[in-house]
Amino acid sequence: MADAATATPIRGSCLCGGVAFELAAPPLWMSHCHCSRCRKSGGVTTVVVRAEHFRWLRGVELVERFAAGPAWSIVRCFCRVCGTYLGEPETHPEAFAIAANALDDDPRVRAAFHEHVADLVPWEEIGDALPRFAASPGGVDFAADPVR
Description:
By secondary structure, the chain is mainly beta. It has a single domain, classed as Metal Binding Protein, Guanine Nucleotide Exchange Factor, Chain A, CATH 2.170.150. Helix content is about 5%, strand content about 30%. The chain has one helix and ten strands. The strands form two sheets. It has a seven-stranded mixed beta sheet with strand order 6-7-8-9-4-3-10. A hairpin with a 6-residue loop joins strand 8 (about 85-90) and strand 9. The longest helix has 6 residues, at about 35-40.
């Protein structure tokens, strides 16, 4: 596989096109999160990318950040014009969770697991055989590549 410096970037953007970003390398992994926060923000499927591989291309001034209160360490980002959920870039110093719905190109990874299935709503059914975790898998080392 090509290294980050020679890999074709993976592009992403919002619905109105005002915000655009790129990933310089394929994400570490993709997962389906079923917690109420992800479900309500519209970002159930995310890709995790090393922080140094994420770059805003345009529209950073259109990116709004939302935190529900001081207890939340996660800040969710969205386009203030069209409302597209972009994920949680800039939340963790080593890796960012980016909303898969905002990707324009194939991320070259597929979902590896479901997390927070204890929060699954009654009307949602998981129709695949991926591993399921009641909460987050825990102990994720962002510097490593834990699930590939």
